[in-house]
Amino acid sequence: MATEAHGESEGLVFHPMDQFIIKPLTGDGPVGLFTITNATLWMALTCLAVFALMVLGTSARSVIPGRIQSVAELAYGFIRKMVEDVAGKDALPYFPYIMTLFMFIVFANFLGLIPGSFTSTSHIGVTAVMAMMVFIGVTVLGFVKNGAGFLSLFWISSAPLVLRPILALIEVISYFVRPVSHSIRLAGNMMAGHAVMKVFAAFAPLVLISTGVGLVVTPLSILAITAVYGLEVLVSFIQAYVFTILTCVYLKDALHPHH
Amino acid sequence: MATDTLGEGAASACVDAGGGAIGLPQLCPDWMGNQIVWLVIALIVIFFILSRIALPRIAAVLAERQGTITNDLAAAEDLKEKASDAEDAYNKALADARAQAQEIIAEAKAEINAELEEATQKADAEIAAKAAEGEKAIADIRANAMESVKEVAKDTAKELVAAMGVKADARTVTSAVNSRLKG
């Protein structure tokens, strides 16, 4: 896709999807299971960023927090409150898992906004694994905590008896669609924004090729990149938030399956 | 893009000879396993960073802060109570002082009044004595004056009678003058 130049001029190069290519960091060899790739690098940087914020940032343990410690505490309070509000107090033991997901996604998203970087969360393989972890974890937890009573999640006792089997079918389908929507939402958002930026970026050097049209198109595309970048900053946080809050909602269903 | 630097060797099912992506790189099956492995490792690392170090530390800091705030509030409450006590004591002292002052004033007033009364009485007595003395003097003077008038009248009458060339009896003149003065 988009391997050929297809702008108004031959000089314009459109490779909006190339930024998502996984490649080994050193050498040109094939990508094996444990090859150190650009994905590895940026996931490692994500871990480092989490470590920097949550461990180095709080190392002073000051009662009156500094800037970085305030941010770390803010993140802690934000997710903890979300877990407590959405999934209930008995979901707090699972708070570290949810915090892990949130910190990984939010830092992967933001690191992906650095020009020339690689966005781990733009890959469906990554988000699908996280979504499946949530799905399987929540389903197992539901059965462990409630036994067969977990199935009452699909049997809506407040609906008329005739409708219940139909509703149960719909509920089961929607339950199994959850990991799909959960993962595609995040990966799709991250991919789309980055691809759009890349397309606008490809238009930017037009002024070097054809001065007439370029005088109009180049400033416009630069403006568009700026605007989309601003939007992406917002989307990066919102998608991490959405992924996390949906995890909390699914967790609530597992802990309290009765409608 | 950096992919342009990839040589021919990078070409695979998902990358063309020029290093460009074929289709969605996200759907390339060759790369999924690698990503999943590193993702799981990254998540485990982050989980241990958070659950072993960061989250307990932040929880401790927040608890400590909460404790400090609670302690400070209690101390403030204590100090407020102390201040209120001090104010009460001050007010009480003020009220006592006022009452004492009132007492002293009343005492002083009574003393002054007594002294004044005494002085007034003394003065009144003195005035009365003086007035009596004066009255007596006036009476004396009046009596003396009457005597002198009688004397002068008698003498004048005698002289007048003598001047008119009539030998007058002294006793008659005196009785006549006396009767006139009475009338």
UniProtKB/TrEMBL annotation, chain A:
Gene3D superfamilies: ATP synthase, F0 complex, subunit A. Keywords: ATP synthesis, Cell membrane, CF(0), Hydrogen ion transport, Ion transport, Membrane, Transmembrane, Transmembrane helix, Transport. It is a multi-pass membrane protein. InterPro entries: ATP_synth_F0_asu (IPR000568), ATP_synth_F0_asu_AS (IPR023011), ATP_synth_F0_asu_bact/mt (IPR045083), F0_ATP_A_sf (IPR035908). The keyword Transport applies. GO terms for molecular function: proton-transporting ATP synthase activity, rotational mechanism. One of its GO terms (cellular component) is plasma membrane. CDD domains: ATP-synt_Fo_a_6 (cd00310). The keyword Cell membrane applies. Key component of the proton channel; it plays a direct role in the translocation of protons across the membrane. Belongs to the ATPase A chain family. This is ATP synthase subunit a.
From TrEMBL, chain B:
Its main location: membrane. InterPro entries: ATP_synth_b/b'su_bac/chlpt, ATP_synthase_B_chain. It is found in: Cell membrane; Endomembrane system. GO terms for cellular component: endomembrane system; plasma membrane; proton-transporting ATP synthase complex. The chain crosses the membrane at residues 36-55. F-type ATPases have 2 components, F(1) - the catalytic core - and F(0) - the membrane proton channel. F(1) has five subunits: alpha(3), beta(3), gamma(1), delta(1), epsilon(1). F(0) has three main subunits: a(1), b(2) and c(10-14). The alpha and beta chains form an alternating ring which encloses part of the gamma chain. F(1) is attached to F(0) by a central stalk formed by the gamma and epsilon chains, while a peripheral stalk is formed by the delta and b chains. This is ATP synthase subunit b. It comes from Roseovarius atlanticus.
